[in-house]
Amino acid sequence: MNKVILMGNLTRDPEIRYTQSENSLAIARFSIAVNRRFSRQGDTDTDFFNCTAFGRQAEFVEKYFKQGSRMLLTGRVQNDNYTNKNGEKVYSVQIIAEEIEFAERKSTADANASRGGNGGFGGGAPEPTAAANDDFMDIPSGLEDGLPFNNIN
Q1: Distance of alpha carbon 56 from alpha carbon 61, whole angstroms
Q2: Measured between alpha carbons, how far is 96 from 30 in angstroms, rounded to an integer?
């Protein structure tokens, strides 16, 4: 099984390009910085991963993520080893994204709202408010009516 789950911040804006085939495919390349839970004295406490997303995932990344955005990524590890023009073997690893989700912290979402942003909620929806002393957000009243599981008997 080849499965990786990472949560971190984009180190730069994603780069997107499209294949030149008849059915053009979006390809997004980006890098995320992931903090380690534990680190040894004198060792770095952050790892940087090069990631690639294809198709709708690539378009999602381009549209909603920028440098500093926090994301939760599920994917697989892929070796991209090659021999360079000097005949030297180059070893590299990249993460191929399979699922990508928002992972902004409450404080970041609050900062976006205070700058006039909508924290990822569109269409004039009311802003969620932070509950006291936790990282969970309260759902504004009136939004429950549109939830599919709200009318279960």
Answers
A1: 9
A2: 11
Which DSSP symbol is given to 139?
P
User: φ, ψ for residue 93 (rounded to 5)?
Assistant: -130, 140
pLDDT tens for each residue of the chain, 153 residues long:
999 999 999 999 999 999 998 889 999 999 999 998 877 777 779 999 999 999 999 999 999 999 999 999 999 999 989 999 999 999 999 999 999 999 987 665 566 555 544 444 434 344 445 445 555 556 566 555 555 555 555
CB 63 within 8 A of CB 41: no
Nearest to 19 by CA among 54, 52, 60, 61: 54
Rounded distance between C-alpha atoms, residue 138 and residue 58, angstroms: 30
**Cα separation values, 90 from 84, 93, 144, Å:** 7, 10, 53
